[in-house]
Design brief:
The chain is built from three helices and five strands. The protein is globular and about 35 Å long. About 45% of the residues lie in helices and about 25% in strands. The strands form two sheets. It has a three-stranded antiparallel beta sheet with strand order 2-3-4. Strands 1-5 form a two-stranded antiparallel sheet. The longest helix has 17 residues, at about 70-85. By secondary structure, it is an alpha+beta fold. A hairpin with a 2-residue loop joins strand 2 (about 15-20) and strand 3. Helix 1 packs across helix 2 (about 55-65).
Length: about 90
């Protein structure tokens, strides 16, 4: 599947997230594996899981951080790929 920023992120019901001191621990109940996100990854996760479209999350993060737009796009794309690979999110074009 080709990832597009016009897609949306869906968090499966078997994925649990707990934020601790600005960082997150994500548990995939199917694989029984834990994953950690640093402070920036946690903010990206929050934006992705609360916005309607990936593009909306990108624009929100771009307004918050003093970062090169292409760098942010690449970092967000990479994070989404990792999250999909580990079954922590699904992407949908609907």
């Amino acid at each position: 599947m080709t990832l597009s920023f016009a897609m949306r992120i869906l968090v499966p019901v078997d994925v649990l997230v707990r934020e601790l001191d600005g960082e997150s621990v994500i548990l995939n109940l199917k694989s029984e594996r834990y994953f950690g996100l640093d402070e920036v990854g946690t903010r990206m996760w929050a934006a992705l899981s609360s916005c309607d479209m990936i593009q909306d999350a990108y624009e929100s993060l771009l307004s918050e951080y003093d970062v090169d737009a292409e760098q942010l796009r690449g970092d967000l794309y990479h994070l989404i790929e990792q999250l999909v690979e580990h079954g922590l999110v699904n992407v949908s074009s609907q």
